[in-house]
Amino acid sequence: MDAPERGSLPGGPVRPTARAISAHRPLGGRGPELSGGLLRDWQARSRDVSLPMALRHLRTAGNMENLRLAASGDGGVYRGPVFMDTDLYKTLEAIGWEQARGTTASLAEFTEEAASLLEKAQQPDGYLNSYVQVTGQQRYTQLERSHELYCAGHLLQAAVAHARTGGPARLVDTARRFADHLASTFLGTREGLDGHPIIETALVELYRETGDGQYLQLARQFVEERGHGLIGDSGFGRRYLQDSVPVRESASVAGHAVRALYLESGVVDVAVESGDAALLAGSAARWDDMVATKTSLTGGIGSRHSGEAFGDAYELPPDRAYNETCAAIASFHWSWRLLLATGDSKYADLMERVLYNGFGGAISADGTRFFYVNPLQRRDGHFENDDPGRRREWFSCACCPPNIMRLLASLQHYLATTAGDVLYLHQLAGASVDTELGGGAFGVEMTGDYPWSGAVELRVRRAPAPDCGLAVRVPHWSGGVSAALNGEPLAARADEHGYLLVRRCWQPGDVLAITFDVRPRLTYPSRRVDALRGTAAVERGPLVYCFEQADQPAGVSVEDVTLRPGGLRERPGTLPGVGRTVVIESDAAQLPPAAAGGLPYSPRPGGDGRGRPMSAVAVPYFQWDNRDGRGMRVWMPLSRPDGPDTTAGREPGGADSPADIE
Amino acid sequence: MDAPERGSLPGGPVRPTARAISAHRPLGGRGPELSGGLLRDWQARSRDVSLPMALRHLRTAGNMENLRLAASGDGGVYRGPVFMDTDLYKTLEAIGWEQARGTTASLAEFTEEAASLLEKAQQPDGYLNSYVQVTGQQRYTQLERSHELYCAGHLLQAAVAHARTGGPARLVDTARRFADHLASTFLGTREGLDGHPIIETALVELYRETGDGQYLQLARQFVEERGHGLIGDSGFGRRYLQDSVPVRESASVAGHAVRALYLESGVVDVAVESGDAALLAGSAARWDDMVATKTSLTGGIGSRHSGEAFGDAYELPPDRAYNETCAAIASFHWSWRLLLATGDSKYADLMERVLYNGFGGAISADGTRFFYVNPLQRRDGHFENDDPGRRREWFSCACCPPNIMRLLASLQHYLATTAGDVLYLHQLAGASVDTELGGGAFGVEMTGDYPWSGAVELRVRRAPAPDCGLAVRVPHWSGGVSAALNGEPLAARADEHGYLLVRRCWQPGDVLAITFDVRPRLTYPSRRVDALRGTAAVERGPLVYCFEQADQPAGVSVEDVTLRPGGLRERPGTLPGVGRTVVIESDAAQLPPAAAGGLPYSPRPGGDGRGRPMSAVAVPYFQWDNRDGRGMRVWMPLSRPDGPDTTAGREPGGADSPADIE
Fold it and tell me: Which terminal residue of chain B has fewer beta carbons within 10 Å of its beta carbon, N or C?
């Protein structure tokens, strides 16, 4: 592999200009280097296993062939959904971020092939869309469903990645020609916008990369046009398309979750680059509302299968949660933009929750299969139509796998920022972090065994001469924090932004050791979440846990297990199929199988008693479904409180007997 | 109105032949006459308000015009879904059942117009389908989605209704020509069947009416062919179409709920007419499984919006329950067939539950609007795409309204049966019931104020000379039953089939008075129903109740109310918009509004305390959504048990404070 020089590249995703509203700045260059631990493993697995698989699928599923047909201009039979081009674009973006760390011959070859194909397929005026060109549909006449600007947006994003990582110039040129065509077609001259956002943030990123203000203006136009019913109806109505309320008047995220959050990334990008504090505040308020009322414990969002959409407030079913993988990624992207704009750790908190759970769980342990839908419960025998709900290599609508790859390839960029003369570490991982700070170079080596261990060591490699700050996010879940500087205990309190900030004249060799409390804990739902009443979940550090059938004692159905709050014991180890993990055993009780026959409603409550004491076993949610595909629960029913077992003396034929409950 | 003579007509829906497996027999003729009470009111409202409205919509929505285009043979622009013909057929069936009691000029006129139009549109070989004929699509090439046999089935059912109620002969002739065409096309000669069942039961009914065995054979062929993947894929897979497992091997209902249960009606019809006890037992076993694992408290079925389908076992969310009105009707039809075959009161129990709740709630108090989806909870501000989830006059897919009308028009037929020399009363209502029994005429007048009152009086008008039995179903919900014969107390115990059976030499003037216990009661869910944990519902007699925002004390959100088991007080009265009702007040508590901000998950349970004592007000579920369209709940969270309020002493910043829960 041939890696470019560290720092020789402009940076990663999201590069606010100097004029932008931006409390924090990304590090630039290649960003931190993941040097060990889970995140490094995920990134490597994606590059070594997932990405080569994606290239194979792009060749066999029709994506490349569609573009070849478009390039030939002779028509032919288009294959797949209208947005097949985006699978390629997201893969190209992943390759772009990968190549900042070094590329391989096959990745470089593929990039050249794709860039050449795109160049050939692009029409003289800059337009490029294999579906429209192969089928002969008229451009921009069905924007509610054609995804033409959505496809354009992903091309722009891929090009921006390559522009920032030394990729082929002609890919960037192709994207600019398309963007210029869009500007001349839409900017101030034509009403209309895409049913599926992403062009907004893509245009702002291209503006940041090129300095060409018309891209920012067009992004702004698309944001302002939304909510006025200009899009038309894709069959799911206007809320689905975020087109029922103007962005500035919208109080909460609604409709198709991925669309809603891709739009929000664009809204924040437009707001910060335009200095539009009101637009920014609106997006931040919707983020708060989403977190408070529409987010699963795993950080997953979009509770409805129907329309892949946000549900009503507090509609958060664990079994039916849709929680599309792409929506988790969209949430991650949106939070990062708000984190840069404001510097509030709550955004990094959510990013961590999403990363290790709602996102991390989408990938099989071996990197070969992916979830599209990420529920928090699966009953034995589950079916969604004919699908048993297990991970798959690829999908007929394959948006998620390459989206996962582009995030993992750029993951290190989301670890750290600077604000003035302070280096902020938002995510904990084995990583080398280097940046310019306070007029000098600041280099910090982060080590530890996060998330398995809560102990993190920050060793300063080099530091600027004057005082400067090193800040580490105190995760919201950490009950206690202890810290020591060069072995001396330190008062460890988070500042008002949620960070443990140490300011001093740092010396090479200084060691800041911090220990977060990752002991397993129970988490309870708000009473407003109807679907979770009477349950609790197990968490440990940033990891949400789940109880899979495979781990329970022989003969015990996970559906008959209730948790007894109190005893949680952890056991590090390696599980076949799963790999390294920390298992948690919880005090629990095994209930007798529920009464069969008649309606599942009865004139008397319960009737199952407190059950037989047992230990129930949980594994991290991100490691689920790597064994037998049977039942899984994140939220476990709670055992009855201790006290007389009110069911012990009930007569035969009483309570739950079939005779009584119809 | 011109009413035919009572008893001069062959009967109502489902007329097993003398050779059929059939523990019970329907009464025949016009069936019982609804003489007063809620069911009579519903039937009259449907005839006077709903049916005329349906005729208007059939003229304006395109149904009649589609057939006119088909009759003209000149093509044209077809309007609506492919099964538009069925809206007309179901309406014609409703008119058919209505005319047994008397018709109106406008109904008779419409029937003549429609019968003539169908005759003209029918092709020389008997084929008839406006969609296929107008669009020129090839017959039977897309049975997975074309609904051609589904449309045929509803035509046959309409014709059978008219054959049994003295409707126009040419409607029956049109249907027979189509059925003969189907037999010659499919019977033993062609594999393939419709993605949407109903042709099966329709063919058996036509066999019953005509004695032509080829219809029964064809129905049997369609039942046996199912589950072998012959249908193709409509986009939702094979389970959706009940095509993944042969009927004889299927253990539970699955896929699209209406399709699944229309098929089951056909399965039972084929089984009883073929003397196929194994086929019958399989359907009965699936019924048991459906009741135990896939039925809402209202009797509603099909929990998933996605695919309008059954979910997994115990997947019964109150808020997201789809519970399509047509599925409730299909359940009613299936249960009736199993009741006739077996004589087990559990089928009548479910029919009652469906009738007064899942079905009854689909119709607005004034009969002008209908639910397609019937959830058990609606949060304030609910949206399903752009739809706030209120009743509508009609739908672009208008399957439900005319389905409601055909059931209500034939409702009296489901009240009573005979078995040997016993007259069985399955549903309680103001009704005159007359039948031949034990070689004589048995006439009983049923009066009372059911379901508002549990007191029912059965006055014998005439009786045969020998001993005979009068049996009344003891509803499964009735805690106690008392009975008196001519004023003398009677031991009131249900027999093994669930009926209170009195056998004697009945005399005109004999009065059997029975009182069921309709006092309001709390009902609790099985622990297996995850979505209902920690809640209870209020029922009264056969009525499920619900808590609507409109009825709660000023300033109390229904989302902040918890029930305190114990005090339930009933209050008869009339509510504006709702009409006559019995309101129930429950001891309850008002919780403080849930903490805002941060994820709705916390390291400590609850935190809301026991709340402020109050009375919460419930109305029958069938009367919901006749006021302001705001929140509604059937299942209410339970208050904490009495005892020290563990939250009283919690520190500020503890428990639910936003700071702690992210």
Answer: N
